[in-house]
Structure formats: structure tokens, C-alpha cells
Amino acid sequence: MAADAMEQDYVLIVEPNLTGHRWRYVEWTMQACAEAGYPCMLVTECANEDHRLARQITAANRPDQQIAFVDPEERPRNRLREPNEYWRFHRYFRRVYTIISRMQAIRLVVVPYVDYFFYSLPFLGSPFGDTPWIGITMRATFHHHKVGIKAPDRPFVNAIKAQLFKRAIRTTGLRTLLTIDPTLPEWAARSTSKHSAAIAYVADPFPDEQAENPALARQRLGLDPDQRYLLVYGAITERKGIYELVHALTRLDHAPTLIVAGEQDAGTRHFMRNHVRSLKPAPLILDAFISNDTERDLFSACDAVWLGYKGHYGMSGVLVQAYRFGKPVIATEDGLIGWFSRRCELGPILSDLSSASIGRAITETMTSWPHAPQAAPSARDDLLSRHTLGQFKQTLLQQMA
């Protein structure tokens, strides 16, 4: 197939930003295309040429897995600024499509993070002409109050976004809107017209891993077999609630050892440097990209996982990983993290991030979790057992077929 790939119609994947877990969504989409025999092309900004995924695609040099770099056009001096970011990104996606479609026939466009321009669609239409496309939304929260998820109450903004959403899903060419929020398709089924694009749930995946023997994992990481460990994992920023967690741990008798694993931003790095000496026992800090093997060992070795995030109302792959490894989580009550944690009884829920609340939750976690869930296992497991990479690819390919 590779030999005549360039003659075939391509799946175009557009993602300007490869930070956080966005590059993972791109990688998984490309893997799904390869498994189904669809040649595909990723387009991203030039600043990402040195990103590990871009280097990987370039080094593999496969005709059916292409990469191209396109930057936003320079805005002429006499042109007025776009009204907002949605307009600016819409123009970028339209520019990518225009450039690539002149060189290569495109059968379908996949947008792994459609929230860039979604609310501009009622005004500007599809950036991809008549070509069918699929988008994944990760940030739609306007419906949360209606479905019992705790989120900021912004009735005016939410009402506007609900109306824009209803119009956006009627955009020409939009075949399916996938969402990592299981409550959005439910809301849409009650609230949107029959003439809209399909809205389907795609479980936010985490790479499929089996738990390692905790003693072996601790041995490899050089951890004490008798200590208790609390893991903070992923891109480490102030929004992870890390500042509040550190302050709470310094006030706690018999505190667990903190493990902070993942690349830190400058502010967090500065904070950790100043506070690391006040933590007893001394924390383990891995301020770097974490390999799959180390990730597996970390989730196997720890006793609990921290999800006390601030201002984050979406889903979390770390939550899925903690569930898969049978580890309790300490989670804020907000957004989908709180919704899943409560519904699936994954650990104590924080009503605020005060040192007293965090201290109580840590003590409870280390003494009485994991305990047998009260919820019917089928309801609990059906939700989180679907968060596999295989399920993600299958859902995506069903919509692409």
C-alpha cells in the first residue's frame, strides 16, 4: 500500500500545538489510520519540527504517514484584528486546508482538538470547504449545570455557548463531533435538532498497560518498600493544585512521600526548588518527559494519585490510569474528574483545597482506601473500562469509515 499511497486520498490531521497530551491524540489518530490502511498527513506549526512526534514521523519516512509544517500567515498591517481567538484559529485551519488540498487529494479531515475554532463555525462555516471532517471537543462545559456536574455558574455565557453549539453542529461537512465528556451526547440528544452532525462519546484513553508487581516497581525506582507514596503525574503546572498540596503536606504528621513526575513549567520549578526542603520525607521529583516503562512503574508503586486540580473541568487521562492500576485518587469535586470520582467511588472528594481538607483526604486515603465500591460494578466499570486505546481507535475508525 505504501508504494501508491501518494495516489490515494489522504486523511488530513491538523493540530498546531503538540504540547500537553495533544500530541498523543495525534499519534493515536495516525496509528488508527495506519491500522485501517488510510494514508494520512499531520500538519502542525514549524515550531514543532523538533518535537519527538515530528522527529519520529520524519525518521520513519513512510509514504502513508506524512508530516507538513504550516505557520499562520503574517497579518497585513492594514487588516483589523480578528474579533477573538476562534476567528484566528479558523483562519489557520482554512489556510492549512487550502495549501494542502492543492497538492494532495483529501478524503477526510480529523481535528483532534476542535475547541480552537468551534464557536466560530456558525459565523464562518467549515474551514475545509466541502470536504467531510470529524472534530473532537474536550472543553465544552456550558451544559454541565444541566447534567449535575459542578462547574462555574455562568448562566449568560452558558446560554450563548449552548446556542452557538447547536448552530455549530449543523455546519456543512461536519460528519461527527466526538466528545470525551459522556454527558454531552446525553444533553445533545434532548436539546439539539435532528438535522445536526452526530455527537458521540469517545473515551479519553490512556495507553493500555497492566499493573506491575508494586514491590518490583519500587525496587526499580529506588523507593522504600515500607513508605507510603502519593503521585502527582503529567504536565506539572500550578493548575494541578501542587502548591496547595505541598503546603498541606508540610503541616501533616506522618505525611506520605510525594512523587512529582512530569515536565514542570518555570513557575512550578521555582516553587518546588524553594519548598522542597520543607517536605519530610524528602520527595522524589522527576522533572522530565516520562517514558512508558517509568510511567507503569510509578502507577504500580504509588499508594494513591493526586487529582486536586484547579479550574479544570474536563476529563483526565491520569484518572483513567489510576483506575486501571487500582489506585485511589484524591480529587476535587469540580468538573468531570469530580463527577467520575464520585460516581465510580475512586477516593475521597475535596470540597476545597485548604490544608485541612487536603490533610483529612490524605489520611483517609492512606488508611481506608481502596475499599469495596457501593455502586453496581457494571455501572462503574462500564464507564472507565472503555478508556482504552483500542476502544478510542475503534470509535474513531467507525466515524471515519
TrEMBL record:
GO terms of molecular function: glycosyltransferase activity
Record-linked InterPro entries: Glyco_trans_1
Organism: Paraburkholderia xenovorans (strain LB400)
Coiled coil feature spans: none
SUPFAM superfamilies: UDP-Glycosyltransferase/glycogen phosphorylase
Protein's name according to its UniProt entry: Glycosyl transferase family 1 domain-containing protein
Glycosyl transferase family domain location: 218-336
